[in-house]
Protein 1
Amino acid sequence: MMSGYVSENVEIAAYTALIAAAQAAGDPETSAACERILPQEIAMAKWLLDHLPDT
Ligand SMILES: [Fe+2]
């Protein structure tokens, strides 16, 4: 459970960096794809954290 939470936060950092890189490179398609995925990673990290105490 803790490893999953760490992994989700690594993904959040990665997608955040990818969005910035895609914007800097003038690649709106990649930026848009990452912006669609990022909220899912944030939601999963929150779900894992919320359920960690019960686990
Ligand atoms: Fe994920």
Protein 2
Amino acid sequence: MQKSKRNLLDEEAKASLDIWRYVFGFADIAAAKCAIDLKIPEAIENHPSSLPVTLAELSVAVSASPSHLHRIMRFLVHQGIFKQVPIKDGLATGYTNTPLSRLMMITKRDGKSLAPFVLFETSPEMLAPWLRLSSIVASPANGSHPPPFDAVHGKDVWALAEDNPCLSHMINEAMACHTRRVVPRVARACHDLFEGVATVVDVGGCTGETLGILVKEFPWIKGFNFDLPHVIQVAQALDGVENVGGDMFDSVPKCDAVFIKWVLHDWGDKDCIRLLKNCKEAVPPNIGKVLIVESVIREKKKAMIVEDRDEKLEHVRLMLDMVMMAHTSTGKERTLKEWDFVLNEAGFERYEVRDIDDVQCVIIAYR
Ligand SMILES: C[S@@+](CC[C@H](N)C(=O)[O-])C[C@H]1O[C@@H](n2cnc3c(N)ncnc32)[C@H](O)[C@@H]1O
């Protein structure tokens, strides 16, 4: 058989299996959410015997019916989330955690768990707009169709969160767990940038998790956690951090350096430029800087062999771009060329990009 014909048959055989991912792909996320809801990773980790946990023991620990739990665990073991190992001389089996299931511990605030993020993204409010993705893509350029989130909820995510404290809490917890993972990496990569800096404003700083980490790492700085009033109402009271309510589109409080993580991607270019101008105005001329923690989408696929880790990080960035389409009105992940455009339009003539070996990197814009 010709090589090209064999390749085509191989691709067709692969496709006929891959299609099922799109038919039932949601089961992966739903089963992981179930494990988090039931605190299965915690039940295994904290089991008194510290041995692999049998189905009978696990069903008591999480108050679940053994027959359903068996099916969920069979699926999650197949997914590599938990392990099932022989015990009692091979006469029975028990479950153990894996590095992946430990990232699903809702009770752990260790800078690794992303469980609160899973619960936020799988909430009914955040799932519903996904089913309208095609309507925004098919919408004429004049934006006559409302974005998916607004079409479902009648308002944007920040207005909905203001009216819905439960959703607002989920957002805050999701952001905080992401911050615990990423901000220590930023601090390590940008240590020099905090030298000689007395005041830092975290724009859209949520409940203050970021500044809590930064003032511990750089105790000479005074932090101002700046966010919408309903978020500031529930912000943490932290030594060295003052909480300030306001609208970042009006102005940003004056400071030596602005920190802005995962905010600019929520907005289209017009709002993004306006916000960057406010950040620029907030810092002193010649020495002021704005630290932007965001993704940079690769312009082109590297021609050379691409590291598996790089490829996986890029996949997360592209998924995040889909999230922006589903959950914000105009937000997007940007390529370096797109960042260059908004930074130049906002009047920043000089910037540099630092890698933190994660989905995001740090763009430092100098006033
Ligand atoms: C995606 S979250 C990022 C939170 C935090 N920077 C982090 O990365 O964990 C965006 C934040 O922007 C805040 N925000 C949205 N609109 C705002 C506005 N007009 N003024 C101030 N903050 C705003 C939201 O309340 C939210 O905390």
Protein 3
Amino acid sequence: MFPTTFSFNEMVKIANNCDDAYDGLFFYAVKTTGIFCRPSCKSRSPKTENITFFQTVEEAKKAGFRPCKKCQPDKIHFNPMMDIVHDAERYILGHYTENLTWKQIAQNIGISPYHLGRIFKKQTARTLRVYLENIRVNKAVHLLRNTNLSLSDICYEVGFQSYSSFYHAFQKQTQYAPQQYRKQIDK
Ligand SMILES: [Zn+2]
């Protein structure tokens, strides 16, 4: 049902973190309340066993869930500019481990890199670069928590081209250096 980008556990974590980088890419529904939300919804985190995921609003509605009044997941697709944003996000999620260029992303969507950059920034209040870094750091955090891979393996595994860019992006987003973060988990 889903692009292989996310595992169930990753989606649970994204929903618990209320990360709006994933809005529009999937929706979570809570069986006990009958309501579905965007990943970024600030409502209380439901129990994992009560969560189910959908890729589209239509699928969630068809399964009998109602849109949350707070985060209004059904309003996400009303802006055509957001389709471009979601196309870019999907492409990045499928290719973030590669040495991505903006040109490559823009070409895949069928608009110019200049317009893509402007639209993305305007709609999401962050640049493509920041978005890409967020995705890579999120994945690095996932690998740090769930594998014994070395920090440099993780750095290249998630698509950073140098350890220093990994280090800076990681620290900016988590407030920890990667090695500090691993120590925190090991405690
Ligand atoms: Zn909600």
